[in-house]
Amino acid sequence: MDTADNDMTGTTPPAEAPEPTAPSAEAAGEAPAPGDAAALMEAMTHRDRQRDPATPVDLEAIHARVRLAAEAASSVKAEDVKILDMHELVTYTDYLVLCTGRNSRLTKRIAEEVAFKLKQEYRVLPYGSEGLGDGEWVLLDYLDFMVHVFTPEAREFYRLDVLWKSAPVEDVE
Prior knowledge:
Elements: H1 3-6, H2 37-45, H3 56-75, E1 79-85, E2 95-100, H4 104-122, E3 128-130, E4 137-141, E5 145-150, H5 152-158, H6 160-163, E6 169-172
Parallel strand pairs: 2-5
Antiparallel strand pairs: 1-2, 1-6, 3-4, 4-5
């Protein structure tokens, strides 16, 4: 194995790592060191991490994607489509798209259409997705925004629009 495979600087790492005496940067709430790939991957998978606030230009670009997602959902019979502006309330995302499909089959179809349109128009895929198996509540996580597709029963049960009532809301027809 070449030393360049181990480290971007080309130096060979020490044969034995010293015992840690202080809490890790991640445990202290700091970003991991640039050379610590395992800690970096761990930090990237945790949603409670802090992220840099989006600039107004970033928010415009993100909102364009969010708007396309909401319109795609609406185009396949999603009901009560709303965009919640979350960027001033939370650090883990900028927008939530909430919508309802009349049944689990339709919720899956709505989620498929949203993912297809975003891939086609912006060449983006969700970072993660949940709920496609049963379709009661489908979540598409694009990191800067999340798309929630509910059956009527799930939407009434979780009531995210009530939970986040302080967020500015944009209704989509």
